[in-house]
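Dear support,

I submitted the protein below through the web form. The confirmation email said the job was done, but the results page showed an empty box. After a refresh the structure appeared. I'm attaching both so you can tell me whether what I see now is the final result or a partial one.
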Amino acid sequence: EHANEVIIGDKEKPLAVKYTYQSGRILFLAFDPGMEPFASWDGRLSFWENLLFHSNNTNRIFQRGSEYYYSNSNDIYYLNDITYQVPEDRSPPFLFMFITIGIYIIIAGPVLYIFLRKKDKRDYNWLAVPAVAFLSLVIIYFVGFRTRYRTAVFNTASMIMLDMENERTDIITGMGIFNNKKGDLKLTYSQEDNIEFDVTQSGSQNYTVYADGEEPEGRIVSKLILNEPVNYELYDVSMWEPRYLTARKSEPLQEKIVNSVQISNGIFKAIINNTTKYDFMEAFITIGSNFIYAGDILSGHQKEITADLNSENISRSFDEYLESRYGRTSYPSNMKPPEDFPEKRRKRIAIERLLQTQYAALRGQAKIGLYALNNQNLGYNIKINDEDPVSYFTNGVFTSMDLNFEKGHEVEIPSGIIIPAMGEYGLAQNTASPDGDNGVRIREKGDIDFVYTLPEGVQPTEFSLGFETYVPLYVKYNIEEMKSRNNVKAEILQNTYEYYLYNNSSDSWEKIQQEHKQTADVGRYINGENRLKVRVKVIEVAEAKKSSSEYIEMERLAFPGLRLKGVAQ
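What the results page shows now:
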C-alpha cells in the first residue's frame, strides 16, 4: 500500500510531499533547506519539528554487533498500554467482606460468650467459634465467586480514523488476551478479521534475526494453522499474563461528518452529522488551541454545536481540557479521590493514548478536529480456548477538516491557530525559555519577540492580540496538595510587562495594551513575507525574597493570542 500526501503547499504547487510505501517513507522537498532565505528564517525550528513529525517512521531496525539484528515496532505501543488495563467492573466486594468479618468478630466474641454463659455451655465455645468462622468464609467465598472471571478476557483498544477527504474509515485495533488459567492458550478467529499473528506482538515487541541464518536451539512457543477459521496456539502461558495481537481494516465513508462550519465574532457554529455506525461518546472539538465539549452524538443523529471561543468555559490546552472533564490522574494519600475516579481515570488515559497524537498533528493548522470515545464491538469475533471470552472495547474516533476560505468572503481565524515562532534574541539572552506548547518561562528582564506567519490567500482587514499568563497544572496540584497536608502558604509571583507591535512602514515598535485590536492601516504591520511581529518587554521580574510565602512559583507567559479577520483571495 502506498500513498502520496502533500504536507506543505497544495496539489498545484507542492513544496513537500510524503510518499509512503509499506513501512517506509520518502520525503521530497521542492527547495534546498540549506539555502537562503530558508537558512536564516526565524520559523525554521518549528518547520522542522512539524515536518519530522509528519514524516516519522514508526518501525526501526538496528544492527547490534555482527550476530543479530534488533527490530522495534512502536506504532501500536499505546494500544497495548490500554489493552493491559482491563475495566474495573468486577472488583471484589471489599465492603461486604469487612462487614462480614466485623459480624464474625462480634458473634465469635461477646455474643457467643454471653449466650453460652447463660446456657452454662461455655465448653462448647471450641466448636461454636470454628463453625461461625467457617460459615463466614463460605459466605465471603460465594459472594466473591460472582466477581471472578470464569473465562478468558478479551480487551481491545481501537483507533477509528474517519477520512472525510478520501471517503474512507481506517481502523487499527490492539488486542489484549488474558488466559484465565496457566497453560496453553488457543485463539480461533476468521481470516476476514485481518488479525496479525506476528509473534512479536505476543508479549515483547522486540525480536532478533540472526544474520547467518543459524539460530541456537530453542523451544516452540506457538503454532499457527492457516485455515478458516484460523487457529493460533501459544504454549506455556501464565495465568492472566497478557498476549497482544493487532488488526487493521478499512471501510467506506459515505458522507461528511462535520458540516456547515461558521466562525463569526468569536462564535463557533458547526453541525455534526453522525452518519457512521459508531456512536460518538463524550465528543469534543478542537479549533486551534480551543477545546469545545460536544457531548454524545449517537449513530444516525445530528447535533448543532455552538460555542463562544472567548468564553472562560473553553479550555486552551489538551491537559486543561482533560483535567476539567475527568479530574486528576492521581491523588496524594491525604486527599480522597471522587467515587468515580477509577472510571474517569481510565477514560482520561484512553483519550491521552488514542487522541492526543491526533490533536498534535493538527496543532498550528487551520483545521477542525472532532474526537470521541466509543465502546462498541468492531466485529472481531474471536474465541479463546473454544469459548466466548469476557470482552471489553475501548475505541477512539477522530476526524478532521480544513477551514475552507471561500474566495471573496470574509474570513475569521480565531486565536490558537496561528502559532508564533520565537525570536532567537530572547532565548540567547536567557530572557525566557520554552515552557511546553503553551508559552515561555521568564528568567531575566529583556525583550521576547514573537513572529506570526499569516496564512496565504487571506487579505487581512483586522487583527487582535491578547497577552495572558498562566500557571501549569502541576503547580496547581502542588499548591493544592501542600495546603491540604500542612496548610502551607503559597504564592504565584507576577512579573511586569509591556507590549509592542512592530510597524514596518516606520521601522519602529509601537507600544500597545494587553488587549489590542487593530482595525486601521493593517498593512503597515505586515511585511512582504506576510509576517507580523510582536514584542513582550519584561520590565520587572518578581523576586522571591520579597515574599514571605513558604511555596513560591512564577507565572508563565502564554504565547500571545492572534485573532485575524480578512477576505479570502
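Response: this is the final, complete result; the empty box was a page-load delay. Residues 53-75, 200-206 have pLDDT under 50 and may be disordered.
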